[in-house]
Amino acid sequence: MMIGIPILICLFMLVNVAEHSQKSWDYVQYETAFRSIVVEDNPYRSTRYLYPPIFAEAMAAVYRAGTWFLPAVGISPEESSLWMFVFYVHQSGLLYAILLAYYLSLQLAEMASLTPFKGMLFVSGLFLFNTPLLRTVIYNQVNFYILVSVLVAILALARRPFLSGVAIAVGGLIKLYPYALIAPLFAIRKWRALIGAAIGSVGMIAVQTNAFRDLLSWKQFGRFYLSFPVERESAWFRNSSVLSFLRNSLDFAGAPSELLTPLFGTITLIILGWIALRFAQREKLYARSLETSSQLPSGNDSYRSIGHLTDFSVLSLLIAPSAWEHHYVIAMPLAIWAFALAGRRAPVHLMIILVLVFVMPVFNIFPFSYLRTAGLILLLVLTSPNRIFH
Description:
Largest sheet: none
């Protein structure tokens, strides 16, 4: 059974990706950016490609590689064939990222002191009953690259801190979310990890920009980022961000829209303050355990690093203007940590919360879409440092 279940999960993910290998609306926006890079145009002209330029540059490189690879295997390098080759590589990368995330999640469960059997059952269930995972596959999204980045950052921090930082850089240059992990690493003085993040970021950008001689795509990204279409993004009910909830709540209440900015600013500060308080509480508990030679749940070092990094890994879901349902795959490490800490203490509460975050279907009806946000907040409450021994 210890071997059979992971094999079945891998086969299920293979079938899942294969059965949903059609170009989604999201992927069409990706491909528009890829095509722009190929013809040396601005990939941010349409305002629909939301990520740093490195991912689009990489897929444009796949297109160029296809111009010599396809003839080598006897396929005519027509434009349609080349872009289908790019899509095939993209889907293959998605599958491998899912399988790698599954393996790394099992390692995280072990690091959190779950028994191999219990950890395998929970992680397997988390991957099977997971609406954000399914939506990521359906929309050909990049979220599993980000999840792998976060998992490697957590797992490698103790023994290979430089690799931990490089993982953050790789994920952050695909989608900015993993760079939030730099804050706790800086606060606890993990200098090697920070050096890894800096060298990884600078090195990859240097390669992409021809040793910083061609920064045009980054300038285009900067202009786009500063004019991000927040109003368009937050108006949809399916967007479960706090900003979307406030905007639509004000609309339903008939309240003036001018209240949106101060309300969102206030709640953002409250969320940041809450995360900072959790950090301080965890550091205090960690310092006390060293003074008294006591052992924290899951071990002193792992308790500290998992707790800090899982907190900051989901911060973007609470303060970013967009938090679509497929983004919630990055909350999976927090779910594993919550199960390790509260699986016995509050199993019913945990089950309800996991249903809200991962199992619940997608709603386009106010306010049901925001139950996923509520579930994420409750997941953080369940892993609160001051509840560990209570």
